Amino acid sequence: MTLKNDPKSSLSRVMLRIFGFLVTSTVCGVLAASLVAPAVASMGFAVSDSVQYFDALPGQLDVTPLPQATTVLSSDGKTIATFYDENRVKVSLDQMSPYIKDGIVAIEDSRFYQHGGVDPRGIIRAIFSDLSGGAKEGASTITQQYVSNVLNESLVTAGLGNEVVLPGQKTLGDKVREMKLAIELEKKYTKDQILEGYLNIVFFNRDAYGIEAAAEHFFSVSAKDLSLPQAALLAGLVNSPSYYDPTVYPDHAIQRRNLVLDEMLKQGMIQQAQYAAAVATPVQLKISAGGQGCGSAEMAPYFCDYISHLILNNPAYGATPADRENLLYRGGLTITTTLDSRLQGAAQTQVDATAGTNPDKWGASLVTIQPGTGRILAMAQNTVWLPTPGKFDSQLNFNVDAKDANGNDLNGDGGFQPGSTMKPFTFTEWLNEGKSPTQVVDASRQVYPLGFPWRASCGKVLGAYDSAEKGLGAADDLRNNDAGYYRPMPVNYGLYNSINTATFAEATQLDFCGIQHVVDAVGLHSGVDGSPVNMLQLGNLLGGTEVSPLVLADAFASYANDGSYCAPIAVLRVTNPSGAKLPAQAASCRPAVKPEVARGVNSVLQDVLKKGSGVYIQPKVQDLFPTAAKTGTSNSNGATWVVGYTTGLATASFFGDTSAGQSRAGQNVTINGKFYTALDGYMLAGPQWANYMSQVGRLYPTGAFPAPPAH
């Protein structure tokens, strides 16, 4: 004999049902003591005890704001990504289809508008169905279900998700508590407010909490546009989101949908013709793939990651890391960023094309700053966020400092050696000290031994280039990329042709502390730890310290902005679901380089493209609009650059080794089917920059640079 037919077991279940009915009757003012008092007394629980027990239960339910998804937008309103623990977009009742409102009431609680939070009829019906051996029926009203959901959400928000009690695990005490709270809730809120709250909180799918997210997920429509068969399917889904999941069990979903339609017809919510058409309609899903975070970003996953760091690391968004994470994933923020989707699309297309199939996983990146504001307009690289067959995947952001790179699993985060892109800063100090850009210096000199009399008013210059002193710590004699340039030459000629020995010849006549001031003023710093780039270390004249592309682009933007530096910004506006504004970023600019000096630098960097180290870069952007640029290559050819700008855009283009340690030399390599003896800035980073800038340059100002003073 099974337990189901055990008289003692059956009696126990019946007594629990009767006790539940007793308490509910008390709650509703319909105490049926004559029916149940003897049985309750035999259980040792007096009717007066049940009233006292009920009265002692808490009656206040705090309905806190619902967790909602945070949306990150480009400056032109395009969605970049969403962040959520629960994918939910709260909408008002008038933004929901009438069919979903009627369908939920019909199937879940047909007397919703008649009862006071607890439905005695429903409980009695459930009791006698159980007593008579009929199908098991639920007795929870929509209000009670709403109470249960609110209680559970409160636990999750408080980090107590392990204490959530699921419907099949509830004790009689849990249910009675919900009854008390439901009755009190109905005294505080209207029926429509409760229905709105319920439809916004209820679970439909792991990627859909609330009716708006469910409509978008299953049918790619807003809740207000749900048709009758769509609404009926979703109304039926809440009873068991897994069993009635139309993507897994379409037959179950149709049967449940049709049951909802039956109830709607019986209750006069729809007409026979509507019913017939709806039940004849096949399930026509249009799934919007779920996914949150930067791995599921619709564009710019690495910029998305940068934004998340700005929120999670800023105490303005919460006192603790946990508070900030809770705000990002549950706060329903709208974060409007500086990203321009037009530039981002062009940048992504270009970096993807630069290395092609790329089996050796060379890195390519582009990042653009707007001079005069510091706004980051584009940030792209030739990788995908999540592992994908045939793709170069990485979660390391090539464009930013280590603290924002999300590259803790690698040793290569925090930028790359900038090579000759550092040379304009020495030239800036040359002009600062009143020297002529056409003055001739001795670029034939290759030896700078230990103890050379460098000038530094704030410290001591370190390093030496002297093969004869290698055993004492010096480097080999200074070399140029090409033979034939070891001779006297004008300083400007040495810069636009990127001659190492010319830069050192300049430095012999300068105060290194002035060079240091220039570098600091335009925001340059180590991408590894944020420390200043030490210009009293000789190797840094030629770019020995890793610098991130974002920081380098921003430094060059100062020249485009007539010498004024603006710190990079990415967050324009942050609002919460009620529209209240949270802290954001504003332009933060300061004088960095004298305007006349910036104009002198601009003049020479335009010549880089016209007759210098960038003359072979195609397409010739300088023929389209005024453009200045500088090429750069590290000693091992493993990091190559072009950083160039117009009056409206400053872009750093990088191509090179982004693997852990950045130890690969860019020599004797094949990229996109072409063999290179040694990579140089103009070869891959150059065309990448030029193709991109020629496409997007005119979207922003491209006026002539102001002329430098006459010398």
TrEMBL record:
Family annotation (Pfam families): Transgly, Transpeptidase
Domain Penicillin-binding protein transpeptidase: from-to ranges: 543-647
Catalytic activity from the UniProt record: [GlcNAc-(1->4)-Mur2Ac(oyl-L-Ala-gamma-D-Glu-L-Lys-D-Ala-D-Ala)](n)-di-trans,octa-cis-undecaprenyl diphosphate + beta-D-GlcNAc-(1->4)-Mur2Ac(oyl-L-Ala-gamma-D-Glu-L-Lys-D-Ala-D-Ala)-di-trans,octa-cis-undecaprenyl diphosphate = [GlcNAc-(1->4)-Mur2Ac(oyl-L-Ala-gamma-D-Glu-L-Lys-D-Ala-D-Ala)](n+1)-di-trans,octa-cis-undecaprenyl diphosphate + di-trans,octa-cis-undecaprenyl diphosphate + H(+); Preferential cleavage: (Ac)2-L-Lys-D-Ala-|-D-Ala. Also transpeptidation of peptidyl-alanyl moieties that are N-acyl substituents of D-alanine
Residue ranges occupied by any Glycosyl transferase family domain in the UniProt entry: 77-264
One annotated Gene Ontology cellular component of this protein: outer membrane-bounded periplasmic space
Keywords from the UniProt entry: Carboxypeptidase, Cell shape, Cell wall biogenesis/degradation, Glycosyltransferase, Hydrolase, Multifunctional enzyme, Peptidoglycan synthesis, Protease, Transferase
Sequence similarity: In the N-terminal section; belongs to the glycosyltransferase 51 family.
The protein's name in its UniProt record: Penicillin-binding protein
Biological source species: Arthrobacter terricola
